[in-house]
Design a protein that fits this description.
By secondary structure, this protein is an alpha+beta fold. The protein has 2 domains: about 120 residues, Diaminopimelate Epimerase, Chain A, domain 1, CATH 3.10.310.10; about 160 residues, Diaminopimelate Epimerase, Chain A, domain 1. The protein is built from 5 helices and 18 strands. The protein has an 8-stranded mixed beta barrel. A two-stranded antiparallel sheet has the order 14-15. The longest helix is centred in the C-terminal third of the chain and has 16 residues.
């Protein structure tokens, strides 16, 4: 079984977020997919299958369980299909979160994938801010209480935590095992601190992403689904306009710099979200199953 490693949200190998991609996965069982994901060890490995409702189906596995949706796994998968199978016709993807629209564009040496996500949802955090700060290795005073702390989802639930200063991000040391107790409303959620101070002037938001302890990983270097939620948060709580385009930087603290562009639009009933990102081939691996 050949697994391709692509690094999403970067055009430079060993930056951005690594994902494993298995292109022809129709004959694999759920158990085999989980075993492959655990062996490869990336935050997510994507398995591309036939779909009766979309151009392809993609399933996403952490080392411990299956995910409904994964942004960097989708970017990696579509670029892998383009480069390994010469497929650039993918416009719809079946996921466990629903059928989403996507497109791939190749310009010069850069390949960009755009994918829509599920309309954004927000639910207020009702837990202890003191305990939340503590599980991140921060003081309560470092959290910006002028902005709401909310659970957000564009396919996967994460807790968005506004932080006052960029300097707080380097000192974060998450107590991952304590997350479920603090996140009682969504015990399997991840935590996504962010701030409006940035390192690169082209970005408008800076973030880190700490995984749910149930996933078998600690931190996602650059996240697509959480970045989509961040863009929707920016539109809904900060810019308060009808449409917005936000560039999000992530991964600097772990040496895997990456960028995600989030386009958001507020309709009468929903906040619609689309993310854009590049990706690059790193290597392939062969496993016996």
């Amino acid at each position: 079984m050949k697994i391709y490693q692509y690094d999403a949200f970067s055009s430079e190998p060993n930056k951005g977020n690594p994902a494993g991609v298995v292109i022809d996965a129709d004959d694999l069982t759920d158990i085999q997919m989980q075993e492959i994901a655990a062996t490869v060890g990336f935050n997510e490995t994507a398995f591309i299958c036939h779909s009766n409702t979309a151009d392809v189906q993609i399933r996403y596995f952490t080392p411990c369980h299956e995910m409904d949706l994964c942004g960097h796994g989708t970017v990696a998968s579509l670029i892998a299909l383009y480069e390994q199978k010469s497929r650039f016709d993918i416009k719809t993807i079946e996921t466990k979160a629903g059928v989403i629209d996507a497109r791939i564009q190749a310009k010069n040496s850069s390949i960009t994938v755009s994918m829509k996500q599920i309309p954004a949802k927000f639910i207020n955090f009702e837990g202890s801010v003191q305990k939340l700060a503590s599980v991140l290795g921060l003081n309560k005073q470092e959290i910006d209480i002028n902005l709401p702390i909310v659970f957000g989802s564009t396919g996967i639930w994460t807790l968005l935590v506004p932080i006052k200063k960029l300097k707080s991000f380097k000192k974060m040391s998450p107590n991952t095992q304590a997350f479920p107790e603090v996140l009682a409303q969504f015990s399997h959620a991840s935590i996504h601190p962010f701030c409006l101070e940035v390192i690169n002037p082209k970005a408008q938001m800076h973030g880190r992403h700490f995984s749910s302890p149930f996933s078998g990983t600690i931190e996602d270097p650059v996240t697509g689904t959480a970045s989509g939620v961040m863009g929707a948060y920016h539109l809904n709580f900060i810019s308060c306009i009808r449409s917005d385009s936000v560039i999000i930087e992530q991964g600097q603290e772990v040496g895997r710099n990456g960028f995600v562009t989030v386009n958001v639009l507020k309709s009468k009933e929903h906040i619609l979200v689309e993310i854009e990102g590049t990706g690059v081939f790193v290597k392939d691996m062969v496993l016996s199953i």
